[in-house]
Amino acid sequence: MFRPLLSANDLAALLRARDLDPGRPLLIADCRFALSDPGQGIREYAAGHLPGAVYVHLDEDLSSPVVPGVTGRHPLPSPSALSATLGRLGISPDTTVVAYDGGPGAFAARLWWLLRWVGHEAVSVLDGGFAAWTAAGFATDTIVAPAIPAAARYPVRPADTWVVDAVTVLEATRSASAIVLDARERVRWLGDEEPIDPVAGRIPGAVSAPWVENVHDGRFREPADLRARYLDALGGHPPADAIVYCGSGVTAAHDVLAMAIAGLDGARLYAGSWSEWITEPSRPVERG
What we know:
Oxidized Rhodanese, domain 1, 13% strand, five-stranded parallel β-sheet, alpha/beta
């Protein structure tokens, strides 16, 4: 399987290899985004990005429209919509994709997860993102629309077992055969603070596994450290027993990525996450 994480030096080597052999398709995806300002990422991209990178917008490219009172804040794109988006970006089954964001990988992990979900193996996240690239002294450019030819609609093959719905999560809360991990910050897991969604708390029985603790100084912790962290969170369960959620299904993918880096593949994503869970008042909420 393709390595889920690349360093800035790894990516620079890939770019040099592409220059030597232009027939090797490589796409770099700039996924910078800010929940508080959906236009911030594209402005940052225009000001400077990795050479040849294309901009990929969380709301417009990596999510489907929100249905108030039904979906969470970032519903998964439908397979057909994602197929069209990948084709427009020039991604074919032969393309190596490297995703990055400002640094920690919270938004790049969403593209990584989506591509893996639909069967694309050759995708990695740039460890440390744009900050690591520039800190290493590598060049950037400001070409906003690089000439990347569109590909055919991507032949997506969604792995249904990678995603669970609210019914499955509710069943998991009543079963000893599954474990639910909450990727939000611990204060949100406790229900002490809720800066985004209208209801504070957590899915009953969920174990706190904040995505922010996967990184140190903007880069992923060592695989051995991540492995120890998640083995402790899993409490003896195999990774395939785990269901991961966050506020809207975005940073939960960061936990799934961290587990993959640690060699603990198989965790499932509750894509609707907390913002979907609370749309149905009968679903239980736990605090404290």
